[in-house]
Amino acid sequence: LSLDTVREFLTREEDTVVFGLIERAKHPRNTPAYDPGYLAGGGHGHDASFAEMFVRESEAVQAKAGRYQSLQEIPFFPFRVPFTLAPPYNFTTELYSAAALVNVNDAIWSMYFNELLPLLAKNGDDGNYAATVSSDLVCLQALSRRINYGRYVAEVKFIGDQQNYTTLIRNKDTDALMKLLTSEAQEDVVKRRVQKKAMVFGQNVTLDGPVETGNSNSSQTSFKVDPSLVYKLYDKWVIPLTKQVEVEYLLHRLD
Ligand SMILES: C=C(O[C@@H]1C=C(C(=O)O)C=C[C@H]1O)C(=O)O
């Protein structure tokens, strides 16, 4: 684990996030899928939304298949489901165990449904709720993996500067920790790169003419997901939440 390899992971994860958003944007808002009254009204005895039920049930299957044996993945609904569908794999443990399960999945959940989705999906209802929330699950998992990877970033930064971090952790000085782990130059690179990825991955590909470069006829270019929304997602939510994970991990790094 090094700063370069953790940044490579985050860079590759950007592709997964952007492709996930493109897939979700294919579907309209489909608000009944997020309304707790929808399932209750059908007499299905749920007080959760269809989306929540779908994520919970999907995670239960994936937990059985061993998905959460890897610390890179943290479920939104932690439950003890025996991992029974595949033989165990002996994952290397790069994280400090007392801090390894630090995560901000609750914040990711509410950001995704309350803030991002209204900006991402066009108004409308086509009834394809299962396909829609299935694409929500992919987005949530990608965002969770990316943001909670802040644990690995923090571990690398701690190892690289143990003296300074140890003092700040002992003093529980969260502001100074936040400052020490922040690289504004790196954040700027990340935000501009994800915006560009939204332009490259989200363009319409046709056989006529050259591949759209984004600088010619840009007024006529329409992207499947607004590149400025992807910039905003990282600027307002993904990077701040990643840094929150880094700070919380560090606060437990000497437990
Ligand atoms: C993840 C890192 O830590 C911080 C968070 C960043 C991010 O979430 O992209 C970028 C730079 C840092 O301020 C890093 O240094 O790469």
Automatic annotation (TrEMBL):
Gene3D superfamilies xref list? Chorismate mutase, AroQ class superfamily, eukaryotic
EC code: 5.4.99.5
One GO CC annotation, please? cytoplasm
Q: Which UniProt keywords apply?
A: Amino-acid biosynthesis, Aromatic amino acid biosynthesis, Isomerase, Signal
Q: SUPFAM superfamilies from the xrefs?
A: Chorismate mutase II (SSF48600)
- Gene Ontology BP annotations: amino acid biosynthetic process; aromatic amino acid family biosynthetic process; chorismate metabolic process
Q: Does the keyword Isomerase apply?
A: yes
Q: Which InterPro entries match?
A: Chorismate_II_sf (IPR036263), Chorismate_mutase_AroQ_euk (IPR008238), CM_AroQ_sf_eucaryotic (IPR037039)
Catalytic function, reaction form: chorismate = prephenate
Listed NCBIfam families: CM_pl-yst
The name this protein carries in UniProt is Chorismate mutase
The species is: Oryza barthii
